[in-house]
Amino acid sequence: MPRETGTTSPAVPQEEMATALVCHCPASQCACGRVAAEVAESAVAEATTMSNKEVKATLKSARDAIRNKQYKEALKHCKAVLKQEKNNYNAWVFIGLAAAELEQPDQAKGAYKKAIELEPNQLLAWQGLANLYEKPNQTDVKEDLADVYQKLLELYESGDKQKWCDVCNKLVELYHQEKKYLEVAETWQKLIRMKQEEGAEKAELHQLWKKMIQLLKDSTRNQDNKTEQLLLTAFEHALHSADTVPGEDHQNLYKDFIQCLSKFPHEVARLEKACHDMMALYPTVSYPLEVLCLHFVQSGTLSEKALHCFSRLLEMDANSGPGIICFGIKCLKENKYKEAVKSLTEGLQKTNQCPAAWYYLAEAQMKIREHRNAVLSCNQALEALGTPESPNLPWKNLAFQLKAEILIKIADADAAEEAIKALEQAAKLDSYLGRAFFYLGNYYRDIAGDKSRARGCYKKAFELDETDEESGTAAVNLSVELGDMDTALSILNKVTEKARPGTAKWAWLHRGLYYLRTGQPSQAVSDLQAALRADPKDSNCWESLGEAYFNRGSYSTALKSFRKATELNPGLVYSIYRAAALEQILGKYKNAIATYQQILKKTENYVPALKGLGECYLMLARSALGNYLDRKAVDYIEQALAYFTRAVEHRPDVSCLWKLLGDTCTSVHVISPTKVNVQVLGSLLSKNATKQVLKKNELLILGGRCYGRALKLISLPSIWCDLGINYYRQAEHLTPVGTDKNEISELLEKSLQCLKKAVRLDSKNHLYWNALGVVASCSAIGNYALAQHSFIKSVQAEQINVVAWTNLGVLYLATGNIEQAHEAFKVAQSLEPSYLLCWIGQALIAETVGSYDTMDLFRHTTELSMHAEGAKGYAHWVCSTLQDKANRNTVLYLYNIVQMNAIPAAQVVLSKYTERNPDDASAFTMFGFLNEYLHLKQQAAYAYERAASLLKNSEDTEKYNTAMQNYGRSLCALGRCDEAIEVYTSIPLTEFDGIVGLALAYFKKGLLEESIKAYEKALSVAESEKDKAHILTALAIIEYKLNKVDAAKTLLFKCSLKEPSTESLKALCTLGLVKQDATLATAALKELLKLEKGNDGIYERCLIASAVYALQGRNVAIQREVSKAIHSYPDNSALWSLLSQLVPLYASRKPKGGAVAGSVAYTLDVNHGKEVLLNIAVNQLVAGCHMLEDKKNNPLKNIQKAIHLCPDNPAAWAVLMAACHAENTVVCLNNTEPKRTGLEMTLVSTVSAKTGESNLPHNYVRTLEDWCLCQAITSLQETGKLSEAEALCNKGLKSCPEHPALFLLLRQVQCKQLLQSHKELPDNILEELRKTVMSSSSSAAAWQWLAKIYQSQRMMTGAEMCYRKSLQLASQQGSWNGKLSSLLRLAMLALEICMANVPNEHWPSLVQEATTEALKLSPCPLAALLQALLQYNRKMGARETRRMLERVVYQPANPETIVSVARWYLLQHLYAKDDCELIDVLIENAKANGDVRALELNEKLSASA
């Protein structure tokens, strides 16, 4: 090989040289010398080919010398070679070999290194150097030997694999001796990789991985992370490469793997996975579970996963030490301390591998006050945790701290000293340990009692560890206790300034509480919100926040905070109470009551809750009194008294409870005595009875006693004032009862003295002065000077005092000082414009001076609120105005009565007034009068009866007689004629109104002769001609009732000749209508129209005019008359309703207009709903409306609403039957199943029942029932229920054998059964059918049916004649629908024949003629379709055909059923003409309208094309 000097040197074979150099045996035991000689010989042999003879000979001599162990001789020869060739590699190798054998290691080492320097990639020198370093006498060459082995591995890598492995083993052994575990792992991993590349067996690899584990697991604590990972990788490979899985070796290996993992804290996930994997393979082995449990214990976690692991281990092995320890820890966390001590003690006896268990045991023992044992356990924990350098530093720290805490609790000198030592040891472990100072603070605070030093310790602890909340909290609390608020705030401010959002909860909380205590609620809110951001589930913090909001006045937000606190901790009674109190403040009394009741369920006698409940019921009672709901108020008062009584039973020493009881009792003063029957608990009355019912007077006296009890506890001016008002209310109650005046005077004097006492105690309170003024001004005392002085003092005490100014005005008004009263009321109005009483005062002044604004002022008082004076005053003025009939058209009347809706407004306020003042006869008279105006007959009768009963025993007989007449009139209006006659006859009747009332009662009762006598008596006393005309009209009506028509006419003509009245003319016109006398009716109508103008009676006038025009046959005039009236009075709902009713009868071509008229009437006045909805449904049925068009506004929906409003109207049920039939017909046309079947018999029965209950005319009832029967038969026939239809026909004919319509229907049903057999009908049957139709010759529908029969029998001429007959009848009857139907049917008959291509020109001309006439009647789309189809039949491909069909298809308003037929024929026409563009347009139209039939035809035609 080339050398550095350019010369060559003989090379020794590498394998032989390596063999010679690797041997370590002494010369006496092996042939090392022989080997050396052989090496030398081979080197010489090689040199012969590479060098001169001299070098060759010298190297040979060196070889021989080495062979003969003449190492010195060999050295000489080598030196000789080196003289010749200085860089001879082999010579240097021989020198190294010989020097090594001569125990000259330094010379050998130098020779080998020289050779390596010459040839660094030759093996011989490296082998020799390795051999040298391996000698036992070589020390401190481990590092060099490792480098040599690394080089040999590099050189052997591409050559001898076996030698590479041997060197690798030596290198690993060397690293292992030096505890270089990372190098061991990496080198051994290279060896395994080499074996894998050579394709080693799985078993061999398994052993190699196990060997690697054995090499690395000796000292796991000293290994770095990379070594750990390689060790764990080795375990995993060993586990995966094992042969027998599961097996004992594999199981042991898994245990070793888990044990190894348990030593690495950062391999938690891997440990858990390994344990779970082993459990899956070996489910009966508890070892992995035990390791997991110990791991969870040492980590200090108690998650759901850990608990599951604990329970599973104990299920597998109940005696497992780790399992028992874990169970003990679980008991400790659940505060089951005794069980925890027992389990931990037992567990520690079974296993000693869990130092943390001793700590938990000590903690549990501390909890049950076994402090000495706890100290021993802490010592055991510290002993088990080992030296301070061990990795268990956190546990040691905890143990020292716990020990110190326990020793402090022992509280003796020795323990304290030992505690100090423990804390010092903890501090040594962590010089910045603030907890040590914290426990010292505990010692000084709890044991030594030195709060100042304790605060210093806490402060020091917090300075060392600012995250220590306990230390900070303790420092702050002690600072507050010591009054050092600056220190407390400085600590809190320091923490909050540095705190990130959502942290330092304790600091925010304590500062918030500080602000709350010092009256700074806004800052408290801010800090408490910050505390909640750190812990949103702290119920106490939410409670504190609620308090802060409450103090700030944010009641709604405070309520939410208290509710949140209760939600988080339902046991917080205070939060529930505060929430209820806030609901009470916000006026949500019912919610507050429910919340208070929630507290009482937990704490039955919680006095604040009882008080709150009573207050809520008292407030509800006051609210009910304000709304004049007196009975409800009495119930609330009773409940309030019950709760207040329960409260004072438990706390009789609380003054406010007695005051509230007095307030509750006194609140009944406004209620009528008849309504006050209150149950009170016997304990409040100092009686043994459970409950006792008290009247109003007794309750007021009880209230005074309660105020007295409150005053005994504490003398307050407010309670003296309340007692004075109570005495005043007692006197006020006794005044109308007729009690002894001395008693009343005594009560008023007591009241006066109490109020004077209140004023003396607090002369600056305006309320006390005002109350004193009210009592002094009452009529029984009459000390107006004192009253005036009191009111003025009240105003001086409080400038904005609307009540005092109003009372002063009342005082001036009572004493006749009108101007001063007005000024006082004016000031009160300026102070508070919405104060009711000052407006009542102004109204009274206006009434006194006779102002036109009086009624308007009284009305304003009723709008502001309800008050007795305002209500009665307004009702009086409304009734007075209504009685004056001469002012109906004045502006004042229209404004005050009509525009201001005065009658219902006065009725409402008067109903409230009479409810509270049931003994005011005049009020009940006015109430009845107003109810009569509002058509509230029952209420009017009650009011008049009450007024009469109140006046019965009075001295004023005139008023009593008037009240009885009013009562009789109201009874007569109710139809209670017997009672009305009895009332009238019970009093002397001398006046016109009373006699007329009796006459009317006789008439309604049917006592016509008595009625005539009474009317004749009334005629004799009548003064005006108008009254006489009215009586004559009434007599005429009676004469007509007696069938004396001529006499009736005479009387009515007599009225008309003298001074015609509208009533007499209406009666005359009606008589003409009833007797079908058009001349009389028309003449009377003309006179009526001359006499009556304007809006008065417009509805009756239109109704009579319409009836007259109907009698004359002028149908168009009927519609015009009503439309004209509507045009003049568009806001009259009755006229719109009348139009909607008349359209189907006399203008059937405009049914949609009739429906619209009905809708307008319903919008204007919902009270007409039951009649209007019926009319709307009828019009919609005539117009052909149905549910598929409009699901909300259709006949069925509207008639259902009408029946819901008035279920007793038989006509509505009949229309419902028609609507159901129409809907069923529509769904059948759309090829769907009808939904409303089987209702026919039910509806017929319902109509019969309703007509039986009503008082309708007999003819109307008969017509309605017949129509319903025919309709039911028709519906049954069309649904295929022919047997039921026939049975119903026969049933109807039994009750009415000569009923032509029923007989016709019977024949139709029977004929349909025959036609279903598809056989020709015999001539005799056809003749019978013709005779049946002839018997109903006035029915166009009957002739149309006969035409259908003829058409089915192909008797086309006969069918044509029948259709012509039906057309003739419809024309005679003026039936537009009948004419149109006949013409269309006739055209369809003719078209059918035309489409059959019958060669007869008569039929096409008939189609053209009939459709032309139909189009004259109406723009009928069906007629247009028939014309188009006729054109299609004549000339399919003509352009006119396309135009006519397109006109039908693309007309927007045409029904889809008609358009679909036209589209079908048009599509065929377009395909015949091959017009692709128009075909596309038509198909798009079909798709848009969902015409499936046309689309299917298109597919067929396009396929065939």
Structure keywords:
single chain; 1505 residues; mainly alpha; two-stranded antiparallel sheet; 1% strand; flat; disordered N terminus
What is the number of strand segments? 2
User: Which sheet architecture does the biggest sheet show?
Assistant: 2 strands, antiparallel
Q: How big is the Rg?
A: 60 Å
Roughly what fraction of the amino acids lie in strands? under 5%
Helix content: over 70%
Set down the secondary structure blueprint.
Elements: H1 14-22, H2 32-50, H3 53-67, H4 71-84, H5 89-101, H6 105-118, H7 123-133, H8 142-156, H9 161-177, H10 181-197, H11 202-216, H12 225-240, H13 248-262, H14 268-281, H15 287-299, H16 304-316, H17 321-333, H18 337-350, H19 355-367, H20 371-385, H21 393-410, H22 413-429, H23 434-448, H24 451-464, H25 469-481, H26 485-498, H27 505-517, H28 521-534, H29 539-552, H30 555-568, H31 573-585, H32 589-602, H33 607-626, H34 630-650, H35 655-666, E1 678-681, E2 691-694, H36 696-713, H37 717-734, H38 741-761, H39 766-776, H40 784-797, H41 802-814, H42 818-831, H43 836-849, H44 854-864, H45 868-883, H46 891-899, H47 902-916, H48 921-933, H49 937-951, H50 957-973, H51 977-985, H52 992-1005, H53 1008-1021, H54 1025-1041, H55 1045-1058, H56 1062-1074, H57 1078-1091, H58 1098-1112, H59 1115-1128, H60 1133-1146, H61 1151-1164, H62 1169-1182, H63 1195-1205, H64 1210-1229, H65 1240-1253, H66 1258-1278, H67 1282-1295, H68 1300-1315, H69 1323-1335, H70 1340-1352, H71 1356-1373, H72 1376-1395, H73 1402-1417, H74 1421-1434, H75 1439-1449, H76 1456-1473, H77 1476-1489, H78 1492-1504
Antiparallel strand pairs: 1-2
